[in-house]
Amino acid sequence: MTATPQTATPQPSTPLAIVTGASQGIGYAIATELARRGHRLALLARREKPLHEAARHLEPAAPVVRAFPCDVTDAARVQAVFQQILDWGGRVDVLVNNAGLGVFAPIHEISDTDWAANLNTNLTGVFLCSRAVAPQMIRQRSGHIINISSLAGKNAFAGGSAYCASKWGLMGLTYCMAEDLRRYGIRVSVICPGTVQTEFSPHAGKDPARMLQAADVARTVGWLLEQEPQSFVSEVLIRPTQKP
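^ that's the sequence the OP posted. Answer follows.
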């Protein structure tokens, strides 16, 4: 009696990308760029209705699109949702940590609630989502995690204590993650845009025509994914050509 050799279950050939904060703005633009590049998409956002609308609009452009309502600050929910994605997708090639929040006030006026909201969304959420995909990427010996930070992670401004603290922390987290994971063939990068014209903030008094656009950030994500396997870009700063 001859034994039949066992073979590993084949991985899906179409790459899978997870994008958080994907229902609008920069996240939606990034999802659009990844769809154009042929990725299956797992879209995450807190608000269910806008998320499903975004998925519906992206369906004609992507091989497959699925929406997963998720608050990235909820550790149990993140773990459950990412397990659903792995069960469905079989692998994860790209994670874009884009979900973000900005509440601005002087240090002596910001509330405990607003401080926690900035740190939990912009920093802890990235940690939770990255930790959820890392074991699968390690098994694959491949993957790319891209964190969307801000020039506020490098430059201070009045009223930005909580937001800047979260983004400076994200820079440190990104670089440590890169050192932890590079031995497994996993690349970790951070993008720091300047002022972007989105629904995120009205940017009162600034000229929208002079601001960065969400598509500028999305194209940078695409460019990062084009790097050869033996290299990766750690950090990208994006500024408008003219100050708004």
